[in-house]
Amino acid sequence: MRLSRRIPGLPLAWTFVCILAVPPLDGADPWKESVDELVKAIAAQIGSPTTIALTMRNASTLTESDAGAIRQALRSQLRSQGVRFTRADRAKAEVRLTLSENADGYLWIAEIRSGDSRQVRMVSIPRVPPSPASSAPEPLSVRKAFIFEQEEPILDFAFLGPETTGIARMVVLEPGRVVLFGKSGGAWVREQAFTVSHPRPWPRDLRGRLIVRPDQTFDAYLPGMKCTRTVQPEFRTDCRESEDSWPMGAGSEDSPTARFVGDRNFFEGRVALGPDQEMLLPPFYSAAEIPGRGGPTWAFAGVDGQVRLIEKGPEPVATWEGWGSSIVSLRSGCGKGAQLLATKPGDATEPDAVQAFEVSGRRVVPVSTPVEFPGPVTEMWPSSDGVAADTISRNLKTGRYEAFTLSISCGQ
Amino acid sequence: MRLSRFQFLAASSAAFLAVTAQAATRPRYGGTLRVELQAQVSSLDPAAWPEDAASTRALAKLSDLVYDRLVRFDAQGKFQPALAIRWEHDAQSATWRFYLRPGVKWHDGSPLIAADVLPALENAVPGHPFRPAGDALEIDTGDPQLDLLLTLATSPQAIIRHGRSGAGGGPPVGTGPFRVADWQPGRRLVLTANDDCWAGRPYLDAIEISLGRASRDQLIDLELDKTAVVTLDPAEARRAQQEGRRVWTSAPVELVCLWSAEVEDPRLREAVARSIDRSAIQKVLVQNFGEVAAGILPAWLSGYALLFSTEPNLDRARQLRAEIGLPAALKLGYDANDPLARQVADRIAVNARDAGITLQPIPLPGGRVGSAGAELFIRSFRIDGPVFAAATREAIRRGLLRSGTRDTPEDVYAAERESIDNFTVVPLVDVPEIVGLGARVENWIAPPWGAWRLDEIWLEAAKP
Asked: Domain limits of chain A?
């Protein structure tokens, strides 16, 4: 827990900090050990009992309230060592404390002057890791629910058997691995992992997709590879080289399919709409099916940055620019019944956002405010039931991969 | 003004869409990136350490494109597997074993085996060669080697194999993301994507690098869209910014300092140091890029630089000058190939004159300390990574810190204090690396210390 959260309303100015009754740091505080270490180093120089003049400055990115609490803790600890505080002209020693930081973390520096002697003592403290991304629902039409995070890249994730198990298991596709998680004490716990051996190096922007079935079996698609989990005659996961096309949309049996280019990060433009029915489009990153009375409409996010709206033939009925490369359609039952989610343009150095749109005739209309992410959205696939988007983002601050489900909230 | 829900929605949507057309989050494959560098690199062998600092830096950048190391830094400065997929050591860190990544191929298509790697690591730990151990490499030094990963992650420990045409013939062969397609030493390097790269084929099809281009010419080429990545001096960088161009700056990674150790009289060293207005150097010569240098290691790396004073004290300088009595005239050497070093030398000479000291700036080939005819030198010291211990080690190697300094902040601070208080080293300014970028360059993810990751960038599609 960050100190600033424990001391609501702590004023910024040091003078105010000094007179506030701040609760002592307890064992759960991230700074306690460091405060003890610094006090020990100072006490070894000045001896005790003694009197000192203590000044302090915060030259780090620590919040003023954190710095204030650290100062109080230091004063309290020094006092318990027999140190009394006074003005510089009456003190036996002057201690100037600087809260600084460097590439490794925080650096607390104590300059101790006593007569002609000048000593410097330093304590290094690793940075407190940022708290995990909030899973609080957005008060917007697009609801963002945090699922889990990890160091390893996540290509896709899916829940297994929600009807019978209440989403107690999850499968995660990582580069070169399929991992099964179970839920224990509210947290996802790794249960099993299956290695995916691949003869050629993976493409740099590696993508993958999971298609799960109600019986807890699934297919995992990777460039040039396919893994299948079976239950009969036994639970097993087998991987093989494969040029099988990947399902589009939510991945049901009758979903259109398209071939993924094995050493790249996009789909060929040849889309199989059904037996003997094919459509040739420019290469694309993602596709979304929008149900309609006269049959589905498809949106394709092309490699050339164009989004194409396709109805019955290969010629687009509308094209536009300015979206990112991930699009998904959701059946929400709100508004027109289905919405498109789209990432915003940008690259892997920028925070991302996802916004909901509706197709009205041949126009695309925004229907939500964008939902922000702390890094680029690296993948967004529709969930197997088509009502949510399984979304993965790389947090630019932590470098960790975070999994969310996005859904549409009606009437907000 | 309070926006209605509709207005807010419309405004946010407009913001969402009002981005460069054809931008996309997903990397785009293809295209040739044109890069210009000021340095004239004459060899692609990382072990052939160039004379001047600029060429050393440029060679490190080119090496990263063609070669791999056993271990590398990630953007957070943590060690990550590269050609070694994992490693282990004994309790004393004296015996290490590195397991080679399977399936890696040299650019000529031959498989990478342990025996190939040995020559490139011959001098990693002097006197203690690596030896093959099956698919792994082993080294037993008898002493703790706590810095071994640092050594392996930094130049010149790149894994190379000299070209079939023999040493000094064709460029060395690597396993990195790009292959050498054309190499004209000192002039031009053309690289093509390595389809078999273990880390995945890079997004770019090719990179064309022009060497020896002046900063001014590079900016003109950027303006004319003839190139997409340029290395700029502060003056051109400021101009580019004023024109609204994309300018990326690293953390301040290069210390420019005055080296006075050859001056015997400590009063004269102090007088010169006290006369220098570092703030003017940072504001005028470096155009407000970077920061006034207080310590030998930059503040972002050390955390304690703020304990050193940087204020000039002309009265004290004049007082010392008066105590010395004899005419004080010194020669101030600087690297003839470094325009900033020349400007700094001129500025220091002006400052020193105000204290009654005559400094005569003289250009020296390579600006090497100890060159005949100079007592003071303008030196530069470059930080190559985010690791405090590595920077400390390099500062010791360069003679800026006393040998034997342990790499704890307290000890390095004490060593810096010693060099600075006896005025043998006068830190002047910490300068960042400045890069101008074309509008189509996407995913520029250079870490703060200035290493480039051209294998991770891609080019936005050209507009019709």
From this structure: 3-126, 142-408
